[in-house]
Request: fold
Amino acid sequence: MRTGQVGQGRAGGAGHVGQVGRVGRVGRAGHGADVALPAVVLTHLVIAVVHGRAHTGAQVPLPLTGRLFVYIVILAGPLVGLGVSRWRPHAGAWIVAACMSGALVFGLVNHFILDGLDHVAHVPVEWQPLFGATAALLVISEAAGAAVSVWAATRSAGRTS
Reply:
């Protein structure tokens, strides 16, 4: 082993002193998506939980299919994708992208387009500020989530997925 090396001198340079700063990234791609993807998923989760409380307070129930979509695609899906992204960044990011895109369409249609009980203009007046604000924040967070996750997926395309 030469001076300045640590570890396996014959293993092709593994363990060089100059690599000490990279210890935290062993096996990881290490780019902005490592921070952006969790941030957008967790921010979206907080907004969705607050919006759910507004649904309950305003007494705006969803039919069974709507509830299943919310629980599976909007709440659990991005978290599952985030978890998968730890080991398979490409696949996990695409799961988040699909869920955020589906959530975006669902929210736009139900809160702003269809003239139903879930439309922001039809909830009881005392709940309209919270309901409307969180519905708008969901649109923003879901659009951001879709964009960030597509970016993360395309950045990880050449890496282990």
